[in-house]
Amino acid sequence: MPARLRLTHLFLSCALLAPLHAAEPPTEWIDADTGHRVVRLSREPESASLYFHQNAFTAEGDKMIFSAPGGLSTLDLKTREIKLVVPGFKYSVRGSGGVEVGHKTRHVYYEKDRAVWATHLDTLASRELAKLPPDTSLSAINADETLAVGVLYEGPRPTGTVGWPAPGQIIRGPQGQELPFAEQREVLLNERLDKRIPMALFTVDLRSGKVNIFNRSTDWLGHVQFSPTDPGLVMFCHEGPWHRVDRLWTVRVDGSGLTKLHTRTMNMEIAGHEWFAPDGKTVWYDLQTPRGEDFWVAGYELATGKRTWYHLERNYWSVHFNVSRDGTLFAGDGGDSEMVAHAPDGKWIYLFRPERVPDVAGIKNPNSGNLVDAGVFKAERLVNLAKHNYTLEPNIHFTPDKQWIVFRSNLHGAMHIYAVELAKAR
Amino acid sequence: MIARLRRFACFLSLAFVALPTRAAEEPPVEWIDPATGHRVVRLSREAGSSSFYFHQNAYSPDGRKVVITSPTGVYTIDLQSRAIEQLVEGRVTTILVGRKTGDLYYTRRENEELWVYATNTRTKATRKIAKVPRGNVSSVNADETLLLGTYSEGAEFAGWQRGGATPAPTAAAAAATAAANPINAPTASAAPTAAAVTTQPIGQAQYQATWPDGTPMTFADAKELRLHEQLHRVRAGPPRTLFTLDTKTGETKIVLQQREWLNHLQFSPTDPQQIMFCHEGAWHEVDRIWLVRTDGTGLTKVHERTMNMEIYGHEFYSADGKTIWYDLHRPRGENLWVAGYEIATGKRTWWRVPNKDWNVHYQISSDGRLFCGDGSDPEMVSYAPDAKWIYLLRPQRVPDVAGIKNPSADTLIDPGVFQPERLVSLAKHDYRLEPNATFTPDDKWIVFRSNMHGATHVYAVEVAKAKL
Questions:
Q1: What is the pLDDT of residues A58-96, one digit of tens each?
Q2: What is the CA radius of gyration of chain B?
Q3: How far apart are CA A379 and CA A352, in angstroms?
Q4: B413 Cβ under 8 Å from any chain A Cβ
Q5: Fewer CB within a 10 Å sphere, N or C end of chain A?
C-alpha cells in the first residue's frame, strides 16, 4: 500500500497527459527487449482491467470483465470481442473492491444505488440482490455467491482527506523539518489509526438481505476479501503505516477464528498486498525484511500454517504480485525508482518461476517441516514499461489458461488494457 | 566453516605449488591498490608467513605488535616500525595473545604430551603453563586464568572427510585432526614444511561422495555429507566434554558434556567466565552458536532458526565482549546478514550484506563502528562473481519511516545495511587460503594473509584512502 497510495494522487494529472499521445496505440507488437508478444485488448482509451486480487474471469475461463468508459464490459478471451454488460458503471482504479465475477456462476457482482447487483454475463439479465447497510460499500462476494462483505463504521466516519494532505497542508517531522511526501502520508495514516474509530466487518446475505456484523474493532479495517473457495472465510487488513500495524488477518463470517497471518520479528518489517491463491489454500503477500531492503513473496497455507517464502531481487520487486490458477507461476507488475524498493530498473511486467532452495546434499534439518520453506523467484521480463507512468499501477492477472498476463498501462498515453503472451513469440 | 572446511583439504598442496614457482619473485613491500586507492603494505618477509584465524587475538595489549606465524616459528611485527622479531622457534600451535599480559599462548607436542606455553610479546620471556591432560585447548580467558578445551571419551575417527573408508595416512590424519578442531588449523597448517606437503598427496582428504543413484556429488555437497556423517558419528558415540584448565594450578574442570561435536571455542575478551562454543556439523542441520558460563550455567542458544536452509556461523565477539556477531544466511547463499546478539539484553542487530559482497569472515573495529571482511570467490557459498576483495563495511541503520515507531520496536530485530567499500583487490588470491581480515587495535589498518603474489604473506591495508 505505501507505494500504491503514495502515487495514486498523481493519477489524475497523468490522465491529463493523454492528449499528447492522441495517436492510436498499437494493437499488437513484439517487445524488442523481451521477445514476447503484447496485444492491446481494449479499444477505448481509459479502459481498465481490475485490481490484482479482484476476480475478473469466469469459472470457465472464457470471459474477462473490465471497465470501459461506457461501463463494465466483457472481453471474450478467444475472439477478443467486447460487450458492454453494465452500462454506466464507474470503476475507480484507486479502489480494490466493488466489482467481482462470481466464482461459480456467470454473474458479475457490483454496487449500484446502495445495493449489491448481479448481471449475467451472457444474457445481461440484471437484478438487485440486497441493500447495503447505510454508509458502506461493497468489498467482495464469497465463493458460493451467497454473501457480500464490507467494512462499516460504528459511529461517525472520519472526515476529510483521510491519509492525504489537505490542500496547502504541510506535515513536519519531529525536528520541524518538512517531510518527503511519502512520509507525510505515513504521518497522516498514523494519525487516522491513532483515532481508534470503532469499526466492524459486515456481510449481507444476497438471498435474504440479512446483515451480520462481526469483528468489531478499533483497528482501521480495510482491504476485505473473500476466499475464492471457502464461503465463510474473510481476509482483511489493519490499515495504517505498514511497519506499525499487524496487517494481515483472516476471520470467519461468524466472527470466529480470528488469525494473524504474519508476525513481525524485525523492526521496519512490512507485509501487505495480500491475496488468495485461486485454490483458496494459501494467502500470498509482499513481505519486506526490512522495508525497501529485502524482498519476498510470502505464502501462508491456511490449513496447516506452513510458510513458503520466495526471495527476489530489488529490481524484481513489484507493487503487486499474482499467481496462476494452478499455482505454478507468479507474475509482478514492477515498480519505478521512487517506489518503496527504489529499484533502478524495475519498470517491467515480470514472470516469476519459483525455485525451492534445496536441502544441501539431501540432508534435512530435523525440524525442517516446521520451518519457513525458502525459495527464489527466477525472473523473466515480459514487457518493457519504461514509458509507463506508475501513478497508474498495472495490476497483473494471469488468464485462466495460463497463456497470457493481463495488465493496464499508460505506456502509450491513455490507459488501455494489454496482455502479454508467456511463451516467447516465434 | 562452510567454505573454510571445503578449502582446507586443498590448502596444503596450494602452498606447495606456490612456493617453488613464485618464491623467486619478491612480492612488493608497499603499493597503492589502483582499483581502490588504498595503501597496502606487506608486513612479513618470510614466504609462508601467515596472520591468525579471524577471531584469535593477535595483537599485544599496547596495540603496537601483531603476532604471525611462519615456517620457522612465531614472530612479532611492530606495526609502527614494521620490525620483525622472532618470538618462538619451530612449529607450534598458536592460541591467542593474552589481553592482560601480552603473552602469546600456544601448545607444543612433546613426545606424547601436549603442553601449553606462554611467551611474552614484549620481553620474550617464556613460561611453561600446563600439560593438557586430554584433548586439546584453544582459547584463553580475559584475565588469563583459564584455558578452554574439549576432549572425547572415545577415540577420534580419522578420515571422516572421506567417509572414513580407508585408514588415513599420517599427514591426512593430522589434517583431519586439525580440521576437526579448526581453531588450530590455520596456524598449524599455514606453514607446512615441504616434507609434510610431499607426504600429503592432495585428493586424499577431499570430499567426494555420490548420490543414491550413483551420480557424483559436487565438492560442496560432498563436504556437507561428510560433516553430516561425522556429526552423527559423534552423536552416536560417547559424550564430548568442554573443560577449563587453570593456568596457575593445571586443574581441569568440566563445563559441560554433550553428545555434540563441540568446536570453535572462544572466551569472551572481557568477561573471564563467559564461553562461546559451537555445535559443528552441516550448518543447516545444527543449532550452531551457544553461550555458557565456566560453571556450566547460562547455557544459551544464540540464534533460533526459522527458515529451512537457514545457516549461521563464523561467530566472534565484539572487542568490548558485549555482542556476538555472526554470518547469517536466510536461506543459505541467498540472503546474507551479519547478525549481532547482545549478551546482556538479548537485543539483536542485523546488518544486510549485498549478495555480491559476501565475506567468508567478518570482524569488527575496536570502537564497534566499522566492520571488515575478507571477501570470497565465485565457488563459495554465496557464488558472488566479483567478491575477491578485502572489504570495509560501514553499517547504516534502517530508520523508522517518518519517525513512526512500531510499538514493539525495542523487542524486534534492529535492521540495517552495510555500505561496502573495497580496499584491496584479491583477484590474484586463491581462496583455498582464506584471508581472515582483522582490524589493528587503533582501527587504522586491516591485517590479512594472502597468496596473491604467490607465497603466503601477511599484509595490511590502510582504512583511510591514500593521499596522492
A1: 999 999 999 999 999 999 999 999 999 999 999 998 888
A2: 21
A3: 5
A4: yes
A5: C
The answer to whether B417 and A266 have CB atoms below 8 angstroms apart is no
* Interface test mutation site (partner B, options A178, A287, A300, A363, max chain B beta carbons within 10 A): A363
**What is the rounded distance in angstroms from the CA atom of residue A84 to the CA atom of residue B404?**
47
Measured between alpha carbons, how far is A380 from A378 in angstroms, rounded to an integer? 7
Using an 8 Å Cβ cutoff, are B249 and B242 in contact? no
- Strand, helix or coil at A21? helix
C-alpha cell at B113: 604430551
Neighbours of B67 (CB within 10 A): 26
pLDDT digits (tens, 9 = 90+) for A355-375: 999 999 889 999 999 999 999
pLDDT digits (tens, 9 = 90+) for B41-63: 999 999 999 999 999 999 999 99
CA distance B458 to B435: 9
Subunit contact A289:B415, Cβ cutoff 8 A: yes
- Cβ(A84)–Cβ(A71) below 8 Å: yes
Alpha-carbon distance A293 to B417, whole Å? 8
Portion 312-341 of B in contact with A at CB < 8 A = 330-332, 334-335
Residues A253/A143, Cβ–Cβ less than 8 Å: no
DSSP type of residue A251: E
Helix (H, G, I), strand (E, B) or coil at A398: strand
* CB A229 within 8 Å of CB A220: no
If one counts every other C-beta atom within 10 angstroms of the C-beta of residue A416, the result is 23
From the list B307, B352, B409, which residue is nearest A294 (CB)? B352
CB pairs under 8 A between A and B: 127
Query: Which chain A residues are Cβ-neighbours of B209 within 8 angstroms?
Result: 361
**Contact criterion met (CB < 8 Å) for A361 and B310:** no
CA-nearest residue of chain B to A174? B403
User: Is A372 in CB contact (< 8 Å) with chain B?
Assistant: yes
Least confident of A94-103, A295-304, A322-331, B62-71: A94-103
Task: Give the CA distances from residue A89 to residues A126, A172, B456, in Å, rounded to whole numbers and listed in that order.
Answer: 13, 40, 76
Sheet holding B73-78, edge to edge: B65-70, B73-78, B84-89
ipTM here: 0.90
How far, CA to CA in Å, does A402 sit from each of A39, A324, B44?
16, 6, 64
- Sheet containing strand B289-293, edge to edge, reads B262-267, B274-279, B289-293, B300-301
- From B30's Cα to the closest Cα of chain A, the distance in A is 38
What string of DSSP letters covers A256-298? ---EE-----BTT-EEEEEEE-TTSSEEEEEEESSTTTSEEEE
Nearest alpha carbon to residue B160 among B77, B20, B282: B282
Detail the DSSP E strand segments found in A289-394.
295-301, 307-312, 321-323, 330-332, 348-356, 373-384
B415–A374 C-beta distance less than 8 A? no
Residue A127 contacts residue A109 (beta carbons within 8 Å): no
